[in-house]
Design brief:
single chain, 555 residues, alpha+beta, seven-stranded mixed beta sheet, 21% strand, elongated
Length: 555
Amino acid sequence: FTLMCVATLGAFAIGEFADAAALTYLYSLGESISDGAYSRSKNRISSLLEIVPAKVNLCVDSEVREVAPENVQVGDIILVRSGESIALDGVCVSGGGVADAASVTGESSPIELYEGVECLSGSVLCEGSVYLKVTSAYQDSTAYKMQKAVEQARTRRASAEKKISRFAAAFTPLAFGVAAAVFAIGSIVTGDIASWAKSAIVVLVVACPCSLVLSVPLTYFAGLGNAASKGIIFRGGEVMDKMANVRTVVFDKTGTITEAGLTLSGITPLCDDMTEQEIRDVAFSVLIHSPHVAAKAFCTAAQSCKAREAHGVNNISGKGIVCTLGGKTAVFGNARLMQDHGIAADAPESTYILGAYDGKLICRLDFEVALKHEAKHIVSRLYNEGIPRVAVISGDSQGSVEKTCAEIGITEYYCSCTPDKKLSIFEGISAEEKLKNKRSTAAFCGDGLNDSAVITAADIGIAMGSGGSALTVDSADVVLMDNDLLKIIEAKRVAKRTMRIANFNIVISLAIKAAVVLAGLAFAALSIEMPVFVAIIADVGAVIATVLNSLRAAK
């Protein structure tokens, strides 16, 4: 602004009124275009901060009251009507409808809501009305995590943005110095004051750093909005720069490349005196009283079984459950529990529950962790995207990790890791990559509380936004709102494209300015006047071209 004002006054002073007017008008035009571009990108970001309504319909004693989302507790029932935004994560307990979760996950496919279906906060109920049982407090909800991440993203600038800001701060006085030197030296040597005054004005106009100061931050702003619309939250432009250079991705296992829960994979009868259905009924009658995740998985799969009344239920931490069923002792748990009750049993490699009834082994229940549907494709897709190293660091047993990695094609894995050991191994992997290339970065992707330390220490910590630990999400640099692993590839593509557009804007701006300044000096040396209008067109043209080019990052 200072450079343009002085250049305009200088043009008036030497009688170039048309140039002064053109300079003022075209500078304002460039500012107007850039302001419009900023507004569009800002509105795109701001819309993500307004996905949670100020009030929710809380159902209390057959009444519906409007309360703030912060005042709703886990387990409360809320009513959502057609056209309303869903303020809190919940599961549908009655009613039905269709929800649009595009603002959270980036996926435009509608979600059918009926009894038992989970729904993320931030979604909009397009039709119908539903009663939801709240499953997460407001501070732990998907929408709140997204809002918090977006707010933080706007305050963290990319390295290119920081350099441009420092450059612009030093550039203005430098431009004045160069313009003064051109005028003074040229006038003294040639005695042609008017021509060299014009050359000095050309230097001031062309030196204006608008195209850099406007286009580079706008590029990253547009890129952040583009990623957010796809359900990928970057915590600032600096994270995008790191993501563009990622060469190693390390995953946690459970809840990241596999589903968080267990599923029943098989029942092996170990007793000829009972039918399989009788074994199922006994197991169901006992395990329905156990809080263990494997017991819950069995009961979910065996809901058609008939429960019998159990007495003297005793849940033994780390071993299993013992009770009396039909006057006989039932023991369900691991091999150590069986041995405690004088029953010989070996522990299999997989996740299991052994069952004994009346002093005899009757069955073995086997469980497995289901792979996420995209996990089988993630490794090959990462390789194709230029990420040559993929690994798994997990706290699970060796057999479980080996099986999972073999299914998805990962050959580098580390098992039975405590949070401290996870951090140590990852730091070693990251250091190896830095030795190969200082610009290379390593990313860690996880969802559990035990991943928060690694995610915080990683060059790029990637967290699962839906269902992930609140601390893990808060620690992460990138949040995947719908837990889709393939979004890592999309994140790298958006980051690379954004950085490429920003760098192109820098190069084209400096090239145009250098060319016009050199041309102006050459013209003056040959006693040929370069019209100030040429410099104006070059500068404002650079602003318009780079600003419009920046908007490509939003698409």
